[in-house]
Amino acid sequence: MLESAQVPNQQALVAFLRKGITGLGTASIERVKIYGRQTGEEFSAWNQEFELVVQNNWSSLHIEEDTTSQISLSSLDTEESKVSEPSIQSKNSKSPNTLEGEKWANLGGLLLLASLILLFINWQFALTTFVVAMIAYNIYQGTPAGKYDTEKRKLESEKKAEEDRLKKIQQEEEKNIEKIQQEEARRLLIDNVKSEVRNLKTNLAHDCINEFIKVNARLSVGVSYMDLPSVIASAKLATQLFEKSKDYHVCLYLSELIKKNMFYYELSFQCFDKRFHNIIFNEYLEQIIINLFPELKGRKVYFDFDSIVQTIWMKAAQCSDEIDDILELSDNNN
Fold first, then answer.
1. Is 116 a residue whose pLDDT tops 90?
2. pLDDT bracket for residue 318 (50, 70, 90)
3. How far apart are CA 167 and CA 159, in angstroms?
4. In what order do the strands lie in the sheet with 58-63?
5. Strand partners, 63
6. How far apart are CA 30 and CA 91, in angstroms?
7. Measuring CA to CA, which residue among 72, 58, 80, 67 is closest to residue 34?
8. Is 319 exposed, middle or buried (CB count within 10 Å of its CB: 0-12, 13-18, 19+)?
9. What is the pLDDT of residue 301?
10. In this structure, are strands 2-4 and 31-38 parallel, antiparallel, or unpaired?
11. Distance of CA 162 to CAs 110, 157, 168, Å?
12. Which of 50, 68, 140, 253 is the most buried (most CB within 10 A)?
């Protein structure tokens, strides 16, 4: 019995064993029967039998089955070194078990194709043909060839699952590295901001955050289109005064946050204005919203108005909290 991870090469190995056994020059062996199977399989994939005849102290081999030309040991070594996958045997060298498996597989495939064609002609015949095709497929799965294909698919599935697991681990590691880098960059930014905000000469930045807090509190309980301009008016004035002051150029990160916070309020008002006047939102406005809030991609402002406006106000509140934290750090350091 020859057993290996892949089905042993019948043609090459029979020739090799014939040469080796013949070289023994013994008359104690009259008949040799060789089996070849894949590791873990219950049945052999092929078998071959031959007789040994001793003549003039040399053994010659008479093979009962039809074989191809002999393969020497050196050619076998060359073949084994080149071929890493299972050898593809010709139809003449296939075992009966392999042929039987292919027969049921081909029959099942033909019946399945026939059932699809009959579906447009007679659904009852199509159903019957489909059932027979499934029976043929089940029989094929019970053959050595079917078991081999099932095991092969199982191994491929396990390999893919392992690759996906390793890929997921790699992605998580990359995310962790990116997160650490972002946190480090954030820490350096905050350290730089803390040193810069100490140079503020006025309280105009504090006036902006005080107005932003008032606006956020008002928006949290809801506001109508008619009331929104008056709600954000004081915050807009405080922002304009800050932008015209020398403090606007002291800490660029703080100035950018204040400017962004006010822009969120004005953007929400533009959405209210178009909705109130039943004006179709143009692509430019929708593109601005998508660029600022990627999570809203694919959602139309007019049809999903409430959730989009709430998202804008939520971002404004988060921006206000960051401004407040920066100014609080400055106050504590002073």
1. no
2. very high
3. 12
4. 2-4, 31-38, 46-55, 58-63
5. 50
6. 29
7. 67
8. buried
9. 55
10. parallel
11. 35, 9, 10
12. 140
